[in-house]
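TICKET #2291
ISSUE: user wants both folds in one file
ATTACHMENT 1:
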Amino acid sequence: MSFWDSTKKTFSRAGTGLRGGSSGAQTADPEFNEQEQRFRNLERRAMRLLQETKDYRSSVTGMVLSQNALAENLTAFMLDVQRPQDYQNAYRQAAMAIAQTSHPQFDEVYTRTVMEPMAQYCGYMPEFTKALKKHKHLYDDLEKARRALAKEQTKAGEDVMCVERAEQDVKYAEDAFNTMNKALVAEIPKLINSRVYVTDPSFEAFVKTQLQFFNDSLESMDKVARYLPPQGGPEDDKMLDQRVESVMEQVRSLTICTLNV
């Protein structure tokens, strides 16, 4: 079984079972206020990390496409040369192998083991955001009920039935708000802590797929290296520079290049 098939088979995507709720008004409960701020920080960083995983995938794809296009254009550029160099065809074949085999394998595994788990985790953020808005509405309802009760209690010759009804409204609003508040204080830390079970296996998969992709690419490029002269020292580099400069000097000496047009 190849590395790519093995990785797809054994990698268990994290994030299954994550559920949550959230709230959203600055209240007299310092514990809730702290947890809400922690969630906001987590949300911002998680969405940024998700975007970075997408950008990395796009960068690798762009590099592979550019490399393949360069190989095609190099072949076209040298098409009518009387002494075609073997490295041109070898490079074209290597770039094609990377584009048609190595990169699709990398892209599939990277998507399944890195991007999808992160996207799944971030997919719960909107649910917590909705719960935060609900928490704010419940808090506003509670404050409104308290003001209504205070108003009834300060009326001259207060109506006992109206006061009792207002007290019931306050109790109902308090119960609803406290239920949501407790849920959020309990669930936000769970969401925050669960990020470890997403990032750890995903980062491991990221490193392994990256290593495998570049090893596969190196294997393809090694077939090109055999047509190139061995790596030399500073003197060889100097001689190469001189050769290039000699050719460019010949180009500059062409009549058309000396015309002031």
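ATTACHMENT 2:
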Amino acid sequence: GDVEPTEVHKSLLRIRERRIAQFIPWGPASIQVALTKKSPYTQTQHRVSGLMMANHTSIAGLFSRTLLQYDRLRKRNAFLDLYKREPMFADGLDEFDDARETVHDLINEYRACENETL
């Protein structure tokens, strides 16, 4: 239905104050909301359309599942043939291993933030 921008911002403040979601401490503006008069992507009868992007610690679960799936594929060396043919990966798949460690470190950072706030 029809929503005023002030109502959206008040709702976001309530989410923060009630600690409904655990937000990351290093990103003070961890919620971004964009309101527009009409959505360019979907046809609706509403006057206002909105999109909210939030950065909170629940994303760690998504990263963990993705990492688990990657580990399973990597263990079987599944879908790596095409990469091994590329010059960039001629010496090995170190780029993949480095990226995996980066995601693992990110998961640990988010988990640490969850533990601090509990």
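RESOLUTION: both attachments delivered.
EXTRA DETAIL ON ATTACHMENT 2: The mean pLDDT is 79.
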